[in-house]
Amino acid sequence: MIVATLLYRASHLAVGVLAVAQRRPEVPLPYAGIAAALGLSALLYGTALRRGRFETRYVWADVLVTGCTLPLALCAWGDVHEPATLAWAMLLGGSGSATAAITLPRLHVLGVVALLMVTHLIGYRAVGTSPAVIAGHLNALVSSAVLAWAFTWYLLRQGRLLDGANARALAAEAHKARYAERLEHHRALHDTVLATLTTLASGAVDANAAEVRERCAREASYLRRLIQQTAEEVHHREIGTALEDAVGCVEGLQLRVTAQYHDLPQVPPEVAAALGDAVREALNNVRRHAGTGHAYLTATGDPDGRGGALVTVVDRGPGFDPGRHRPGLGLRGSVHDRMAEVGGRATVDTAPGEGVRVELRWPG
Q1: Keywords on this record (predicted)?
Q2: Residues 156 and 267 in one domain
Q3: 200, 213 in Cβ contact below 8 A?
Q4: Whether residues 283 and 138 fall in one domain
Q5: pTM of the prediction?
Q6: What is the spatial distance between Cα 274 and Cα 235, in angstroms, rounded to a whole number?
């Protein structure tokens, strides 16, 4: 609105400069008047552009000097005898009323408009202006104030609506972040503590075995870290370390893993963590469902040469029919979703009697 009213005032000043340039130089008041209008306008709008708002005292000075005093002084001492020679000064009142409408309190704006209307009536009557012309100028004066106030009200209202929308968007993002953190905690518990408890409950391993007790102690420590973990913490692990951690977890539950690594690439820490967690859950599934105590893990650089990674987990169990079995929480959330979140992809290849092959590829 500062820029809009500045352009409005600039159009009026341009008319004033052209009108005064055609006057006789021996009458100095019009020249002094346009100079005062230019200087006061520079002070009013220059200050507003620097500070981002109009100064109330400068608005009142502009109304009283440019809008009221200048037209009446021209009528009294400026050798003005016809409406055409006075109109440029009267125009300045229109931009003055617009500036007042977006700056002053509502009652003060009514006072400013009334004061400018009285000035117009006195000035135009003094030079014999017809009532139709006076009515047109008074209408323009009031319209300038009303339109400026309406535009300001609309922009402020839109600003408040936008602020509300931004606040709701931020709240939704915060809720989404909290949900994602809870989901990650659930996945971690499913892949570690729950997998261990399920295996112990099935009686498939000796709970008093040294390696089982060591795994339980390790996961108790992990659970404590998980409770204290914040959303900003990131697992800064290389891909080989992440995969070896996953293998070590399941070997504690008496699953033998034959692992082969070749030309492992450098990947972002979050990708290494996702691959390690997905492999751990795939090996947990072998331990729980495949009915075999042996799994095969292979990890290489992307054979397509794109700098990615390819990891496979294979077992020689009975397999299953993908058309008759929907993927469970572990396969869906801890494998597929984890890879998708880092831009990767997980695929499962299986058939009855042919075992299961889980392929993890990054990027997908």
Answers
A1: Kinase, Membrane, Transferase, Transmembrane, Transmembrane helix, Two-component regulatory system
A2: no
A3: no
A4: no
A5: 0.52
A6: 10
pLDDT of residue 50: 95
- For 81-123, give the DSSP string: -SHHHHHHHHHHHHHHHHHHHTTS-HHHHHHHHHHHHHHHHHH
Q: From CA 296, how far away is CA 172, in angstroms rounded?
A: 43
Q: CA of 96: how far to CAs of 69, 123, 142, 316, in Å? A: 13, 17, 11, 87
Question: Tens of pLDDT along 157-174?
Answer: 999 999 888 888 887 887
Domain span at residue 8 reads 2-164
Both tokens of residue 59?
A: 């608005």
Under 8 Å between Cβ of 186 and 178? no
Please tell me whether residues 35 and 141 are part of one structural domain: yes
Contact present, 300 and 294 (Cβ < 8 Å): no
Question: What's the total number of domains in the chain?
Answer: 2
- Which H helix or E strand runs over 310? strand 309-315
